[in-house]
Amino acid sequence: MNVPSGGPVVIAGSSGLIGRALAAELTRRGATVRRLVRRAPAVEGEVRWDPAAGQLDPSALAGAAAVINLAGAGIGDRRWTAARKRVLRDSRLTGASLLADAITETPEPPAVLIGASAIGFYGERGDAVVTENAGPGQGFLAQLCQDWETAAQPEASVRTVLLRTGVVLAADGAFLRRQLPLFKLGLGGRLGPAGRWVSWISLTDTIAAIVHLLDSDVSGPVNLTAPNPVTNAEFTRALGQALRRPAVLPVPRLLPSLLLGTESVAALTQSARVIPEALLADGFEFNEPEVASALAATLRA
Predict the structure, then answer these.
(1) How far apart are CA 32 and CA 7, in angstroms?
(2) Could you read off the pLDDT of 176-216 as tens digits, one per residue?
(3) 206 and 18 in contact (C-beta within 8 Å)?
(4) Is-above-0.70 flag for pTM?
(5) Do residues 105 and 46 touch, judged by C-beta distance below 8 A?
(6) What are phi and psi of 278, to 5 degrees?
(7) pLDDT of residue 79
(8) Among candidates 263, 143, 128, 281, which has minimal Cα distance to 213?
(9) Cα separation of 270 and 124, whole Å?
(10) Pairing between strand 112-118 and 55-56?
């Protein structure tokens, strides 16, 4: 896998979990990384932008080989009040639209635009196998993902990839960070129904897949998930084994709802058995295709 030549890779959202790791990997591979930041630039390679005000310095995209937009407020860290929903939408749609417009207006647009989305696009799917050909689901999260993807697509003729990302396994990621303290105390358990499907991916494979897509012909939606989704019961058992802690009792239903609210918990614990058909068809090879070994590697890091 190679990084694109001929110019820098511009990243919006470089301070997040995936953005930090991606910027580090691209730099390690010899690419020049240009970071879009919402504050005054502090180091070389940073360019200020203000999506809320519709401000983006035209020089930010000058000569760029690729643009990667990972910006967006945390989706599962607090209650979905009306105000929080506006933040979730605005933090995604305004930035995506601003970048799409800037790319369209750039005399020499980048070869590829990669925009973030999520498997929340599919909504509740039960046991059905879901590929990129599946239509959208129902509810706030599914609609948010649909609107996010629409906003991300420039009018200019630019190869555009939409990353429908699953649960990213990282020790400091939101998903595991909420569960690890209880598991380490021996109080861990599954969150939600035992049979719901969890579509996950290691952080290592997340970064490798994005780098692969930079130097690919793939366009459109791409499921950024491992090829072997597991049931909630299987995931919980694997996490307990990786930590060498029991994982017997389910988390009481009321506890997550009290912390995050019923609507957000319901959306974040939907069942979606997602398969990365586009990545597999393009020859991408996963380093960590099985959840047990992926969790063990994640928690050793």
Answers:
(1) 7
(2) 877 777 666 665 566 778 889 999 999 999 999 999 999 99
(3) yes
(4) yes
(5) no
(6) -65, -45
(7) 81
(8) 281
(9) 5
(10) unpaired
53 token code pair: 């005000």
What's the pLDDT at 265? 63
**CA–CA dist 298, 301 (Å, integer):** 5
DSSP state of 288: -
Burial group, residue 221, by CB count within 10 angstroms (0-12, 13-18, 19+): buried
- SS3 state of residue 105: helix
User: Which residues of the chain have a pLDDT value below 70?
Assistant: 1-6, 182-190, 246-267, 301
pLDDT at 249: 53
Sheet-wide strand order for 66-69: 55-56, 46-50, 33-37, 9-12, 66-69, 112-118, 159-165, 220-224
CA distance 217 to 153: 16
pLDDT at 190: 63
Distance between CA atoms of 251 and 187, rounded to whole angstroms?
Answer: 9
DSSP 232-287: HHHHHHHHHHHHT----SPPPTHHHHHHH-HHHHHHHT---EE--HHHHHTT---S
